[in-house]
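Problem 3 from the worked examples.
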Amino acid sequence: MTSNTAISEQAREILITNDRGGYTVPTAGLYPYQWNWDSAVAALGFAQFDVDRAWVEIETLFKGQWADGMVPHILFHKSDPGYFPGPDVWGCEGPIPSSGIIQPPIAATMARFVWEQDKGVGRERLAALYPKMVKWHNWIMRWRLHRGAVCTTHPWETGRDNAPDWDNTMARMDASDVGEYTRRDTAHVNSDDRPTKYDYDRYIKLVQMGRRLNWDQAAMLAESPFRVADPTMTFTTLRAARDLQVIGEALGEDTSGIAASIELLVTGAETLWNEELGGYDSRDVLSGEWAGCLSNASYLCWFAGVENAKMLARLRDVMTRVPYPVPSNDPNAESFDARRYWRGPTWAVVNLLIGIGLEDMGHKTEAKALADKTAGLIKEHGFAEYFDPMNGKAAGGGTFTWTAAVWLAWAGRD
């Protein structure tokens, strides 16, 4: 078997190869731009061997921040006809051509980790980023809360595009007038690994609505048929707030506002507990119904600093039952699909966040077991975008930036 040293060299090479000069693409072809949470994880990977380049990654991401504080989920630095929907479809007017939605706000958490690699060198750069990160946090707190939980207004925002969490909400949407369009993703990878046309029609419908409303948050709040309180957004926002508080205190800033938002988000996280499911779940805030889905995002509670004995028991169970955990959907669910994107596959990047949380909350045994299983998965099947949880086979794109970063920063550590 290939040595850890050799795999680490491959991982570094992937980051360097996917570097486009100040930002990193997730993988060539399939994802040719800068994605928000991918970029934050890439910074963590770079920090293991080039701290300056790690800071540049995050700084470039915030160059795309809108005047109101929002940081888009995609920055279109250069035109690429191989990707749809591009900037012409989104019709946004930020400082850099972009999408009109966000992604899980893990940039503050990753900025803290990069800073902790070298606090002396990083302090000035962290200080410059801090007000921008707080401004984004405040934007989320203003526009996305429901009973203290953080909502998504588009499946793409969560990063979990076609997760079963959204099925009931999307089923109520009429996308019959979405018109003709040509997908590009299925030209790069197996269509069995990607969302269906049914899902994609609804993704585009929501983009068209946002453009028609000029991405005005108040108008979208009033009109959008898609608003779901979600574990991914809630737990990552809560974790970001905790990290912003640590950063702010180290910089001598007043963090009372952040402390208040932490208290609100902790309360909101508990509104996502579905007692019947026995896990953290998504809920449609318009209909009030639960999604009824136990996903890998359900296990992000520890990442957010939220302890839950029932979730720990479920994690231990799934790590025993599933050869390559943590699956993105409960294998016992009717909606489980071992290869189709977020309907079953295991994602090393979510394992990273779960593992960080487990370790932070004192669950060292589970954290090490998950890191070891993720390392074995990468050693056996490479730096894929995601993996079949039953046989470990690679799926989606290859030579993937965040999988390489996961190896360098966590799974492949001695």
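Problem 4, a separate protein:
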Amino acid sequence: MQKTTKDWSAQKYLQFENERTRPARDLLAQVPLENPRRVVDIGCGPGNSTELLAARWPQARVSGIDSSPDMIDKARKRLPGLDFSLADIAPWTPDAPVDVLFANAVLQWLPGHETLLPRLFGLLAPGGVMAIQMPDNVSEPSHQLMRETAAAMPFAAKLANAARPPLPPVGFYYDLLAPHAALVDVWHIAYNHPLADAKAIVDWVSSTGLKPFLDPLGADEQEKFLAAYSAGIAEAYPPRADGRVLLRFPRLFIVAQRA
């Protein structure tokens, strides 16, 4: 995870571990390497994605980096045999070229993809692969309502920069990487997660997209914001036939292999 004004909560993040790990599995399945020697999970979070990497390549040197102390602490406890380090992704440089750079649901938080992604790609060994998955959901009701709720609050000025900007189009990433790559594969998947109720959607986003909206607020302001946001979510995500709600969640995937 990337830095915010307050640390991320691994406990909240793992409340929906199965749903959050599924895109990492789908991304990993498309990495065309059999025997990488060095694998790094950047933005490793609590280690759920790192665990997949270690299981697929047990002979590789697998490690993880993250900017959140809580996430790194949970990852170390989960996978004590692996190396986890506290680090910011933007300036991070490994001690040797990497065969797999795996970035599951982290790079959407960092600006400057036009320079960041080529820099990361350049850290690969010849034939190495950079595998990226990013939520592409800022146009979904879950995130539209964050912006609309913030704009309607008397403390709207505090939240002027809270929203995550939309990702560039697919062609941007293809054109950015293709001139330097032997392979570039870019695709979208829209997951539809059945959750218990509208409150579960609020719980889901409270540890990710909603966090930058809540961090600048005092306790009373948070309560006011959450009440209005929760009411909007309940209206936007009505119960289905079995009483559950469906959270539609589009994600962008990129696999690029160095020549």
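Solution to problem 4. The CA atoms of residues 158 and 216 lie 7 Å apart. The longest strand covers residues 181-195.
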